[in-house]
Each structure stands twice: as structure tokens, then as C-alpha cells.
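Anyone up for a design puzzle?
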């Protein structure tokens, strides 16, 4: 039997789609020549074409046992890649990489396996070594920037992407992935620049994902008309679908068109009632509209969102009934400010049940204990195996879920619902109060996604600093000594700062410091929530678009004051990024 001729016959049958005949020839050959590499590999390829991946894998592995060849390893790794069998790729590579010559595709598959198995340090090390080995291979740069974005290594992705662009400035994939990288770095203008370049470099590439990303960047910039135009272009070619309607709903919601957003989101849910993002967005939309009871039907889907956006310790999507005999274990969720906001409803909720135990973060423990003596508090560290047994029969909820149980949410009651430590308040008052009115200042947020939109430059407050009726004290967490020193050196304005206070972690003492202020000026961060909870007259400076959260939305503002915190007066930007008009309105209304 002439093996070469038989293999050619099998290949001809394969080319013409006659897999069964090709399989018959190769099966006879493998029985007669069980160690012949080409016979085994060709039969494996036929098994793969017949959609029998497990049999194909067995044959490729048999081929490797007979003789270690680069082609065999590539075939097997490619097959594992198609099947997303990342552990096998790692094992095959690490057992054989010293025995084979370097091959870029094998290296990139190995990096993909490390990426999917969340081995970030190994990925970074491998990319650095491959950058030396393959400095002129564009596939390396394209694959690496994608991988680094998936691992949230955005700065490294930018570094690799810009080197790839130096190599091939007109490469669609490099430009597109740089657009994604800048989006992840929350730099929408830079993102749009590279996405537009990619759009001009298109060959036969689908532009759907590119246009969707670009419209999202315009939304970040509050350029809603541009976002709409991009989506129209997208829908003209690819038609309306769930993703375009979701994006359009985001545009309408952020433009204040809640009814239009509601209609779009409901159209998605009519087709897919369990669509997580559409449910969540509709819940947020109803919260903006103050339709709290309707909101929770959808807002509860927040616990099913992916990745870092997921909230809550418990899966409370299906909420049980409660009564006066119920014992409830409630877990914290979201940020400190969000928790304080929901705790405004806790007195009402506590009247519906017999007992509440709240799982809190360490930094809020003393504040909550001081204000809610009838609630039991434990920290996450204390929620161990023994405590799980203790609370076995408790109803388990995430904090935001208490919205569901309160029939008539009334927020027009007392300005304050928190109190501070009285002795600490007196101590701070003796230390910092004078004949002038004391104004507390907070000017930036540490929220990585929206801090640039929410924060303002301390120097913007110069028109306020000039008013001799006021003295100033910092309520800002973080490393702010240089900010304060700069203002003092340039304007001879002294901003007091308590060096003994851990502003970030010691919220109990920070609450007392805020309580001595006659006024507070702040951006949308924890200071706004703390001052509002105490009932301190507060001026909240908000951006026009991104960074304005649902509880600060226009529909929640009554006569310029927050619905959730009546002592908080809200000042909105007219133009995104321009604080001058905001400061002018603030100066005219400070008292």
C-alpha cells in the first residue's frame, strides 16, 4: 500500500466534502501504520471536521507521544483553544516549551490561557519577554493589547498599543484596541480619536462594535446628538437590536427623557424578560422618576450584573415575605454614601420586623452603632462559619432591597437622621471655630470611573475664598496637603486641616468634624452624604452629565434641594467640565 497515494486520496475526498470516505481511508491506514504521524494527524483533522473534538484530541495526543513535532503541538493547542480548554494549553506548553523551537502563535495561545485563568503576573512577564523576541510582529501587539485590556492592565495595554501603532500606523486592530484602551482609562476624547482612525482604516471589518464603543464615548462626554448619529449609522447597516436599543435608552435617560428610555428598555424586556442590564437600567430609570415601588421590580437585578459592578453578599433576587416576627440579616452594598442613603429608610423598615442584624464595613461600625441602638451590627470579618450557623434561619437581604418592603417612601421629614459624638464635636469646635462662619470643603472623588467628571479644582473656589466672612476647613480625604499649601501660597488663604484625623477610615470622627461646620461645599462624594445625613447646610456641586448619580438627578431635586437630603442644595453645571457658572451661582446663594 502506497501511503502517500492513499493520503492524497483521503485529502481529495476531504476537499470535496466527503468526510466519510476520507475517514474510511484514514482508518484503514492508521490500523496498518499506527505510528505514522501524517496518518494520525490527518485522521484527527477529519474527526475535527466531523465535530468530534474529543476523538481528535486523543489522536493529536497519540501523535505527540510518537514524536514531538511543532506542527503536532500547534494543532493540539489550536484545538484546545477552540474548546476553551485553558488548563490543557498551559500543561502542554509548560511540559514541552523547552523541547520546541519558538513559535509566536503557540506563545499567544499560551498567553490567552494564562489570561483566561487570571494569572496576571505570568501574563505580564511573558509579554515583556515576547516584546524582546518579536519586536516587529504586529500579531503580538494586537493580541497583547486585547489580553491586557481584559485583565484591566490598561496602562500596560496603552504602552503596548502605542508601540504597535509605531510599527503599523494604519492597522485597524491596533487603532480599534487603542480606542478600547482609552475608553477603559476613562479618556473618551482619546478613545474617539483612535476609533475614528480605525473607522477610516476599515477593510472588510464589521464596524458594529466600533460604533457602539464610539457612541458610548460620546455619551460620557454628554455629546448626545453625536451619540445618536453614530447609533443611527449603526442601525442603518446592522439594524436595530438589543445593544443599540440599550445604548439609545442610556442616551434618553441621561438626557432626562425618562419616558423614552422606559419604552426602549421595555421593548428589550418584552423579547428577553431576564435581560440583566435592561432590567437594572429600567430600575434606575424608575428611581430617577421617584417611582420607588415599580423601581424595585427591576433594580433588584443589580445583584446579577457582571464583574466588579455586582453588588451585595446575598442572592436576594426572589424576596421573601416579612412580618413582625421576622429576623433579618442585611448585608452592606455599594459605597459608603449609598449605604447612608438607604439607612435613611432603616427606621421605617425596622418597624416591620422583630430583629435586624446588619453586616457592615469596619469604618462605618461606630457611626451606625451610635445611631441605631436597636440594630445588631457585625463586620464582614465576624461573618465566619459559626455566625453563618447562628443566622441560618434569618431572612437574608442586601441593603438596597429594603426599598421593596416600604410601601410609602416619605423623604420630606427631618433634615437630619444621623447624630455625631457630642464630646468630639465640642472638642473640634473649641479647636477650629472662630467668629467667622466655618465652611467645610471637599473637592474630589476617588471613584476611578467617574472621578474626573465629579471632581473640581480647589482653586475654582477663589471667589468664595475672598469673602472675609468665612474661614475654611478641609473635609477631604486623601493626600491633599499640596492642594492646601498651593492655595495658601498663591492667595494667602488658610485652609485648616486636622493632621491627626484619618479622613478616609475614621468616619466616626469625621462626622463630628463636619457637624461643627456652618456650611459645607462638596462634590458628589461621601462628604455630601455625611453632611446631608447631619442636616448641615450643604452646597453640592454636580457635573452636567457623567458623575451625576440617580439620587442627585434633576427629578429628585425640589426647589434646588435634594429629595433625600433636604439640607443639601444642588448646583449643576451648564456645560460639562465648566465649573465657573456653578461657582458664581454658589457665591450668590451661599447664605
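Challenge accepted. My sequence:
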Amino acid at each position: 500500500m502506497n501511503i502517500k497515494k492513499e493520503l492524497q486520496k483521503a485529502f481529495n475526498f476531504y476537499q470535496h466534502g466527503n468526510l466519510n470516505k476520507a475517514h474510511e481511508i484514514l482508518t484503514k491506514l492508521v490500523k496498518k501504520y499506527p505510528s505514522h504521524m501524517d496518518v494520525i494527524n490527518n485522521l484527527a483533522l477529519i474527526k475535527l471536521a466531523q465535530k468530534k473534538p474529543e476523538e481528535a484530541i486523543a489522536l493529536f495526543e497519540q501523535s505527540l507521544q510518537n514524536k514531538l513535532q511543532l506542527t503536532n503541538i500547534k494543532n493540539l493547542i489550536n484545538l484546545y483553544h477552540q474548546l476553551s480548554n485553558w488548563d490543557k494549553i498551559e500543561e502542554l506548553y509548560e511540559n514541552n516549551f523547552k523541547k520546541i523551537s519558538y513559535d509566536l502563535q503557540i506563545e499567544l495561545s499560551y498567553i490567552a490561557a494564562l489570561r483566561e485563568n487570571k494569572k496576571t503576573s505570568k501574563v505580564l512577564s511573558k509579554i515583556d519577554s515576547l516584546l524582546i523576541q518579536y519586536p516587529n510582529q504586529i500579531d503580538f501587539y494586537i493580541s497583547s493589547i486585547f489580553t491586557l485590556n481584559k485583565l484591566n492592565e490598561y496602562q500596560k495595554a496603552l504602552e503596548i498599543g502605542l508601540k504597535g501603532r509605531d510599527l503599523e500606523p494604519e492597522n485597524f486592530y491596533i487603532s480599534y484596541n487603542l480606542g478600547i484602551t482609552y475608553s477603559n482609562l476613562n479618556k473618551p476624547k482619546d478613545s474617539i480619536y483612535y476609533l475614528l482612525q480605525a473607522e477610516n482604516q476599515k477593510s472588510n471589518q464589521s464596524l458594529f462594535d466600533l460604533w457602539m464603543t464610539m457612541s458610548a464615548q460620546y455619551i460620557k462626554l454628554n455629546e448626545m446628538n453625536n451619540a445618536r448619529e453614530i447609533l443611527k449609522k449603526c442601525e442603518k447597516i446592522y439594524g436595530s437590536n438589543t445593544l443599540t436599543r440599550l445604548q439609545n435608552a442610556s442616551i434618553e435617560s441621561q438626557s432626562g427623557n425618562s419616558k423614552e428610555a422606559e419604552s426602549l428598555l421595555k421593548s428589550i424586556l418584552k423579547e428577553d424578560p431576564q435581560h440583566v442590564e435592561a432590567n437594572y437600567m429600567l430600575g434606575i430609570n424608575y428611581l430617577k422618576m421617584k417611582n420607588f415601588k415599580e423601581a424595585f421590580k427591576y433594580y433588584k437585578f443589580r445583584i446579577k450584573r457582571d464583574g466588579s459592578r455586582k453588588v451585595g453578599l446575598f442572592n436576594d433576587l426572589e424576596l421573601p415575605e416579612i412580618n413582625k416576627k421576622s429576623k433579618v440579616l442585611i448585608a452592606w452594598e455599594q459605597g459608603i454614601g449609598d449605604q447612608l442613603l438607604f439607612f435613611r429608610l432603616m427606621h421605617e423598615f425596622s418597624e416591620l420586623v422583630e430583629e435586624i442584624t446588619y453586616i457592615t464595613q469596619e469604618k462605618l461600625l461606630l457611626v451606625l452603632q451610635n445611631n441605631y441602638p436597636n440594630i445588631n451590627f457585625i463586620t464582614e470579618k465576624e461573618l465566619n462559619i459559626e455566625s453563618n450557623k447562628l443566622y441560618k434561619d434569618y431572612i437574608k437581604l442586601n441593603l438596597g432591597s429594603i426599598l421593596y418592603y416600604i410601601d410609602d417612601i416619605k423623604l420630606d421629614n427631618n433634615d437630619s437622621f444621623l447624630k455625631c459624638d457630642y464630646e468630639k464635636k465640642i472638642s473640634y469646635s473649641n479647636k477650629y471655630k472662630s467668629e467667622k462662619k466655618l465652611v467645610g470643603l471637599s473637592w474630589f472623588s476617588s471613584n476611578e470611573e467617574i472621578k474626573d467628571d465629579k471632581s473640581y479644582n480647589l482653586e475654582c473656589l477663589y471667589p468664595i475664598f475672598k469673602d472675609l466672612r468665612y474661614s475654611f476647613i478641609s473635609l477631604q480625604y486623601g493626600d491633599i496637603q499640596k492642594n492646601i499649601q498651593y492655595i495658601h501660597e498663591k492667595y494667602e488663604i488658610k485652609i485648616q486641616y486636622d493632621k491627626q484625623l484619618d479622613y478616609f477610615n475614621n468616619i466616626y470622627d469625621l462626622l463630628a468634624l463636619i457637624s461643627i461646620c456652618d456650611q459645607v461645599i462638596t462634590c458628589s462624594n461621601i462628604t455630601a452624604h455625611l453632611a446631608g445625613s447631619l442636616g448641615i447646610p450643604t452646597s453640592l456641586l454636580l457635573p452636567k452629565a457623567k458623575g451625576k448619580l440617580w439620587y442627585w438627578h434633576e427629578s429628585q431635586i425640589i426647589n434646588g434641594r435634594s429629595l433625600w437630603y433636604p439640607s443639601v442644595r444642588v448646583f449643576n453645571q451648564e456645560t460639562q467640565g465648566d465649573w465657573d457658572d456653578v461657582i458664581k451661582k454658589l457665591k450668590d446663594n451661599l447664605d
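A detail worth pointing out: The CA atoms of residues 130 and 140 lie 8 Å apart.
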